[in-house]
Design brief:
CATH architecture of the largest domain: Orthogonal Bundle
Largest sheet: 4 strands, antiparallel
Strand order of the largest sheet: 5-4-7-6
Number of domains: 2
CATH class of the largest domain: Mainly Alpha
Radius of gyration: 24 Å
Distance between the termini: 20 Å
């Protein structure tokens, strides 16, 4: 789930929310148009990062890496504060009802069954529901600001056609299947499920009832169109042999036994411009909006009065990809997909 869509990946996205900033007695990390950012604001976020992968921050190089991330966090907090101040100027507000809906969406995406389960996860992050909702509100405000800033950005059919003609290899496809499956642990359970399906039971309902694959069960067992060879060989080969609407016999993999239903399949080929036009337009629109927003933010920085009291180390340690925060991952909230996914 990406609340923040404009290319500035913030450390604080759906992570620990810090108490109100600006206490004059606390050491300052920076100021944004007079609004204070404390060292505690920065270090609490840094602590969450280092706690997730402590070995990466050991020794002299690890300490240097830590200081680099500390400076990066301050940069990101400065940008966040600039954007929130601008959103306030133009009157952007987020209602409690909208936050409620976003929390429910996030819980569904990450298979968090109820509010108590979410609160338990937040406790492990040493934060509260109130602070968590506050972070969501900020990110929703910035999304709304981004939409306002980039509302004039358009992509024409000609833009999309030019992109297609110069990137045709992007739209060459391998053999693909569109499947749903029900994964169970035991062969006898798979046989029972298959018998129920052959007797007319609804596939989606049985997937939600019996499947142990959290990545698909709540979607009726369905996966999107996927290259056949991205699935485990036994799963992919069995899928390809089916006709649309047909059910497989129980297929054994390391994850258990699968009953596969083929929704559709298409052989390798070249997708036509008509098939991918809207996909290309959405991709180009996102790119153009990102560029427009970043240009706007760059100008906003120039006009602002920003003071920073934390600097990166003179010799920068290159941050590793494994430590780069993912905007779709809220702290350590478990992701929706799991190792039970047959194609991974």
């Amino acid at each position: 789930m990406k609340f923040y869509k404009y290319g500035l990946v913030l450390i604080l996205i759906l992570a620990v929310a810090i108490a109100v900033v600006g206490c004059s007695k606390e050491p300052l990390a920076g100021e944004v148009n007079g609004k204070k950012i404390t060292v505690a604001d920065v270090d609490e976020r840094l602590q969450q990062m280092t706690a997730q992968q402590p070995d990466a921050f050991k020794g002299p190089q690890g300490e240097q890496l830590k200081q680099q991330y500390r400076a990066n966090i301050l940069d990101q907090l400065v940008d966040m504060e600039l954007m929130l101040q601008e959103a306030d100027k133009v009157g952007i507000k987020i209602t409690d009802k909208a936050i409620d809906a976003k929390v429910k969406e996030m819980m569904k995406t990450y298979n968090i069954k109820d509010q108590k389960a979410l609160e338990d996860i937040l406790k492990t992050q040493k934060t509260t529901m109130e602070k968590f909702r506050g972070e969501i509100s900020k990110l929703m405000i910035i999304d709304a600001l981004g939409e306002k800033v980039t509302k004039g950005v358009k992509v024409s059919n000609k833009d999309a056609e030019n992109y297609y003609n110069t990137h045709k290899t992007e739209f060459a496809t391998k053999d693909q299947v569109h499947v749903a499956h029900i994964l169970v642990q035991k062969q006898e359970d798979a046989q029972k499920v298959l018998k129920d399906l052959q007797g007319g039971a609804d596939f989606g309902k049985l997937a939600k009832q019996y499947s142990i694959d959290p990545g698909s069960k709540d979607k009726g067992g369905e996966y999107p169109w996927t290259d056949k060879d991205k699935y485990l060989p036994a799963f992919g080969d069995a899928s390809w042999k089916l006709e649309a609407g047909q059910l497989s016999q129980p297929i054994k993999t390391d994850y258990g036994y699968h009953i596969i239903k083929l929704i559709g399949k298409r052989p390798a080929g070249q997708r036509t411009f008509a098939e991918v036009k809207e996909e290309i337009k959405q991709k180009l629109l996102a790119q153009k909006k990102k560029e427009e927003f970043n240009k706007w933010l760059k100008n906003l920085r120039k006009k602002a009065t920003v003071k920073k009291y934390i600097s990166p180390p003179k010799t920068e340690a290159a941050p590793t990809g494994a430590l780069t925060p993912n905007a779709s991952e809220p702290g350590t909230v478990p992701a929706a997909d799991s190792a039970a996914q047959p194609g991974q």
